[in-house]
Write a structure and sequence with these properties.
482 residues; alpha/beta; Aspartate Aminotransferase, domain 1; 3 domains; 43% helix; binds pyridoxal-5'-phosphate; SelA_trans; PyrdxlP-dep_Trfase; transferase
């Protein structure tokens, strides 16, 4: 019997030919050797199922049953791993989902930069070699009030190269309460120490005073450092030394003040219920000599580490050998320049930079978008789920504004069968996947992080997830769905 089942299995080439006839789009989108390997894996799965007695009915090896299973397997396993997802969590800067969504202008600029050659390091005024940084330095100086600027791969790199250039071999005085972990168990003090600087910690976890810094300064001190603890807040008995006060102390001793701003914003979001984040310009104006911040957190641009500050210091950082290792690529540069240009006009930035627009979306706008999403979902899901609107909260994310919740209107989907948890799991396997939240047995979608154009797509994948049978999970062994 088992032998008969083994013999009934089709040959690899027969499977490939059958796929070609029935699934031309899949075959066109999947490189041939990959498709062949997937067919082999699928057939191996069948053989294992036969051996282990899980597959005993020859009907399941007939082309009518086998082919759809094979096609679904190949589509799932052969698709690119890095894909688009729909973010319905309401967390605007979600590191797991790529942080900021780029403005349309930045996307266009990336396409232009990489479709053909560019003047990345070509000075068009002279025809000689130019500098890639010249494309954004003036913009950054205009937007922050700084004398000079440099951009590297990300903010962790910005901290590393700044300290390597200014502090290697010396002591840097920093408040104990500011030595933060930034997620993925990366710790700012570890990055700092890689530069070869020794950290001289002062103050207590909750309080640090001007005299703590002054007492720690000695002949080995090369800089004072402040880390903006944007991802947590101390409430209660707490004190800090302001940028202006610390700059005054640093300059009195002839030392530079370095500020790692983390998020770094060009806009003030206090009117949107997000107070307390200093703008980059205000930190530069308060006297910090070097300020580092991320391109893809509150700024809403591509992943980048932006360093602005005094000309002599930025020149020293530019000459540091790490600059070559940490330099940004042309696509990032294109996206960053386009994003920064939007910030030249504040109102334009609030409208056109998706991160800024999502952070400042008006409650009425969110309610309207939630209503549209709810009616789409009701039409798509019919009697499979109950859909209602509930008030809720969104978060900025990315370690920014940790204690500020933004009011929103959520769409709650309560499946009539199978439960919200199963719906959430199935939505990981739709094309595109949709990520939302679970609360009180409902699956919640927050319209804050969904674009208007994504609403029909969101409704379609939720319907698909409510309709699918189980077994669509890519992590499952082949044949499990048969
Ligand atoms: C996020 C953060 C960083 C790291 O920035 P990346 O751009 O993710 O490398 C460094 N310092 C602080 C304070 C941060 O919040």
């Amino acid at each position: 019997m088992t032998q008969a089942l083994f013999r009934a299995l089709p040959a690899v080439d027969a499977c490939l030919n059958a796929l070609e006839a029935s699934e031309p789009a899949l075959v066109a989108a999947t490189p041939r050797p990959l498709l062949r390997a997937l067919v082999n894996r699928f057939l191996d799965g069948c053989r294992a199922a036969i051996r282990e007695g899980r597959l005993t009915d020859p009907i399941r090896l007939s082309p009518e049953v086998l082919l759809p299973g094979l096609a679904a397997f190949a589509a799932r396993e052969g698709a690119p791993r890095f894909r688009r997802v729909l973010n319905a969590t309401g967390v605007v800067i979600h590191t797991n989902m790529g942080r900021s969504v780029l403005p349309a202008e930045a996307v266009e600029a990336v396409l232009n930069a990489c479709r053909g050659y560019s003047n990345l390091e070509l000075n068009l005024a002279t025809g000689e070699r130019g500098s890639r940084y010249s494309h954004v330095e003036d913009l950054l100086c205009t937007l922050t009030g700084a004398e000079a600027a440099l951009v590297v791969n990300n903010n962790a790199a910005a901290v590393l190269i700044t300290m390597d250039a200014l502090c290697a071999g010396g002591e840097v005085v920093v408040a104990r309460g500011q030595l933060v972990e930034i997620g993925g168990s990366f710790r700012i003090p570890d990055v700092m120490e890689r530069s070869g600087a020794a950290l001289r910690e002062v103050g207590c976890t909750n309080r640090v005073h001007p005299q703590d810094y002054e007492k720690a300064i000695n002949e080995h001190t090369v800089a004072l450092m402040r880390v903006h603890t944007s991802n947590y807040r101390i409430v209660g008995f707490h004190s800090d030394v302001s940028v202006a006060e610390l700059a005054e102390i640093a300059h009195r001793y002839g030392l530079p003040l370095i500020e790692d701003l983390g998020s770094g914003s060009f806009l003030d979001f206090s009117a949107n219920g997000l107070p307390g984040e200093p703008t980059v310009r205000s930190v530069v104006a308060a006297g910090a000599d070097v300020v580092t911040f991320s391109g893809d957190k509150v700024l809403g641009g591509p992943q980048a580490g932006i360093i602005v500050g005094k000309k002599a210091i930025i020149e020293a950082i530019k000459r540091n050998p790490l600059n070559r290792a940490l330099r940004i690529d042309k696509m990032t540069l294109a996206a960053l320049e386009a994003t920064l240009r939007l910030y030249l006009d504040e109102e334009t930035a609030r409208r056109r930079v998706p991160t800024a627009a999502m952070m400042s979306a008006a409650p009425e706008t969110l309610r309207r978008r939630a209503s549209r999403l709810a009616s789409r979902l009701r039409a798509a899901c019919r009697e499979r789920a109950d859909i209602c609107l509930v008030p809720g909260e969104s978060r900025v994310g990315g370690g920014s504004f940790p204690e500020n919740a933004l009011p929103t209107t959520l769409v709650a989907v309560t499946p009539r069968e199978g439960g919200a948890e199963r719906l959430k799991r199935r939505l990981l396997a739709t094309v595109p996947p949709l990520i939302g939240r679970l609360e009180n047995h409902a699956f919640l979608l927050d319209p804050r992080t969904l674009a208007d154009e994504e609403i029909p797509l969101a409704a379609r994948v939720v319907r698909e997830a409510l309709e699918t049978e189980d077994g669509g999970n890519a992590a499952m062994p082949p044949i499990a769905g048969l």
